Amino acid sequence: MLTLRQRSILKAIVETYIATAEPVGSKALSGKYNFGVSSATLRNEMAELIAQGYLEQPHTSAGRVPTHQGYRLYVNELMNGYSLTPDDSAELKNALRLKIARYDKLTEELGQVLSRLTNYAAVAAAPKLSSGRTIRRIDVIPCDGQICVLLVVLGNGVVRDRMITVAEKPSTAALYDFLATVNGMLVGLEPSAVTVGHLKALNEAARYGCGDIMAQLTDFLTELAEASGEMEIATAGEGNLLSYPEYRDPDKAKELFGFLNDADNVEWLPMPGDAPVVVRIGAENPAGPLQNASLMVTGCSLGGGYRGYLGIVGPTRMDYSRLAARLSFFARGLSAVLGEAVNAPAEEDKEKGDEEHGRAREETT
Amino acid sequence: MLTLRQRSILKAIVETYIATAEPVGSKALSGKYNFGVSSATLRNEMAELIAQGYLEQPHTSAGRVPTHQGYRLYVNELMNGYSLTPDDSAELKNALRLKIARYDKLTEELGQVLSRLTNYAAVAAAPKLSSGRTIRRIDVIPCDGQICVLLVVLGNGVVRDRMITVAEKPSTAALYDFLATVNGMLVGLEPSAVTVGHLKALNEAARYGCGDIMAQLTDFLTELAEASGEMEIATAGEGNLLSYPEYRDPDKAKELFGFLNDADNVEWLPMPGDAPVVVRIGAENPAGPLQNASLMVTGCSLGGGYRGYLGIVGPTRMDYSRLAARLSFFARGLSAVLGEAVNAPAEEDKEKGDEEHGRAREETT
DNA sequence: TTTTAGCACTCTGTCTCCCGGAGTGCTAAT
DNA sequence: ATTAGCACTCCGGGAGACAGAGTGCTAAAA
After folding, report:
1. Distance in angstroms, CA of B283 to C1' of D11?
2. Closest by alpha carbon to A179, among A146, A220, A145, A217?
3. What is the Cα–Cα distance from A325 to B10, expressed in whole angstroms?
4. Chain B hits for A146, Cβ within 8 Å
């Protein structure tokens, strides 16, 4: 229902608005781009675009601003795939040399890197470590005094530990027996698959001063089981948003900051299955404070079949094309690095697809 | 050199300025407090306070604002010890029921709690886990495929782990021998005390396919040794600052945010030995972006002889008295909880000193 | 029928001016 | 030493003026 010319006008408007943050008028537009038509014609076309809901006017006699719908059309059909410049990809690749020594700080570190890379607020999410992994080994290591360490090693090299205190230390032999029993029964199960029956049986085996340990192990396993399937989410770089005129009002900024920092709430983060990059523009977001912000999210493989998610939060007036390209490139690079850490595959197909990272998949509406 | 009356006038000015964020004039002051003197006299005294550097005027014919020096005197000598209300202490105690299941997220979680509790930006610092602890046990746990997990258990129940990949898996027996040798040689040492000699000797012992593991263990130990003595630092709740008029200018806010989030830099955080609460006001801070902010820091015991630090960052116009009280109470409570987790002492002396948390120790100048 | 030129109109943002209010410094009287 | 009084200063907010950018509409041109 939009003519070709209308589409290219919309595209031009979105792009200049993204660049300037100011309503764009017909004259300025016809000066910058060369449509071969006069500003009057542009005005007529813009009027039509307003009628169809792609643009709006802050007030009569102001320039035009894209609506959510306008951005959406832009993202879905209009915007160019962005070619990363050599500088871009060098920068991104460089950022990928991050240390992932500590798996449990992965989300935080990724968030920080990503926010620095994009100059927006970033979000990173990964399944909690125990999620869906089977128990490989349970161990108890006595330390100083009454302290012991409980260790649960899960699939893919994930280790969870917990410090406990015991009333009295079991003998080495008793501990050995205890561990043999426990491991015999629980290895191979997921924490969530440990039943009351298992625990009861183990409790009986836990004589000779291991009862105390058993109780705390039960707690620990329960906790691991409960964390299964949950996502851990970290945000970073909120401060970057203060640069953008949209967030110069500290109250707005504060609202969004507060929302992003409320780590308990993950509902707002889409977790795309296979779309390269999911974009949610303004009102498309379910959560209130995001309704005048935009969110871009992409998934990445964390190795071992686990998926993490990387995203960017910013004003609706975002450089979607460029950011989608960077986000997607970064996520793919990360997948390669993490996949490599686990599966050690050959990796040198990185160069081949640099151009076509830019196209974002439309959000299912 | 200040008369008693001047001191109480300064006190009144600081307190009303803290409450209102607006320059306080002689008339308003004489209306609110009852000094038994007229506003003219107040003016004379205020002029003297300006001459001595405790106050300043944004411009002629405006009210007065405390200088850093004024705040300093207030904090050192003028302010009342703040009595926590029952609500206060209930709230604080409640916050102490936080989960400290994951020692390695301690700083982040504490920072978040503290910022929520105070409505300022908060900072928490703790020594990196490996700092100064001896090796209790080293273990290697084979997982799926070529993945193994390297475990190093340190004193006080601190566990560090690392995922590694090996070219080929050693046999169970070889691994057993290898671990026996490694543990025999390294247990009881601090990671930083492991010498090249040790490693060389171990390398020779690492036959039967364990060479790969040994190399990665060496890396890991080196890393642990290097982290010794370093502090880990986390900030949280920067967004809270946006509420205060001092940070309504997004550029100011951004500068401070950026600074606080630069985790590499810890120079700016004082780590008091025994002072209840250290206060650094404005220009007393070494770091640029903090020079028009204030910082309150207190230490707390993390158990096992380790000390962490908790702090608050905000505008110089802070409610020092109240915050010092809360900070100190929180830190003491935390010390009790963490001390208990490690040493399990009796703890019920908590109630006794609620009144005198408020007095902050002067910064050594 | 589509495009364009022209024109009158509207709205914003900025600048200036103005004024009330709060506060000061000084002087003279208490 | 204190106070009352007074003239002066400065900020902040509101009213008015104005330039600039942009619009909608109409009538002419293609």
Report:
1. 27
2. A217
3. 58
4. 344
Q: Structural domains in chain B?
A: 4-78 (1.10.10.10), 86-128+231-343 (3.30.450.40), 131-229 (3.30.390.60)
- The amino acid present at A320, given as its one-letter code, is Y
Instruction: Give distance CA B72 / C1' C22 (Å).
Output: 28
Are residues A14 and A70 in contact, defined by beta-carbon separation less than 8 angstroms?
Answer: yes
DSSP structural state of residue B126? E
Say how many Å lie between the first and final Cα of chain B, rounded: 19
User: Roughly what angle, to the nearest 10 degrees, separates helices A250-261 and B250-261?
Assistant: 30
> Going edge to edge, which strands form the sheet with A293-301?
A231-236, A121-127, A307-315, A293-301, A278-281
Q: Could you tell me the pLDDT band of residue B357, with boundaries at 50, 70 and 90?
A: very low
Q: Which nucleotides of D are covered by protein (CB under 7 A)?
A: 2-5, 8-11, 21-26
Of B315, B19, B358, which Cα lies nearest the Cα of B11? B19
Task: Work out the end-to-end distance of chain A between its first and last CA atoms, rounded to an integer number of angstroms.
Answer: 19
- The Cα A312–Cα A124 span in angstroms is 9
Burial class (CB in 10 A: 0-12, 13-18, 19+), B45: buried
CA–CA gap between residue B165 and residue A225 (Å, rounded) = 27
What nucleotide is nearest A46 when CA is compared to C1'? D23
Distance from C-alpha of A270 to C-alpha of A233, rounded to nearest angstrom: 12
Q: Could you say which DSSP state residue B350 is in? A: G
Whether the model clears a pTM of 0.85, i.e. scores above it, the answer is no
A306-320 per-position pLDDT tens digit = 788 999 999 999 999
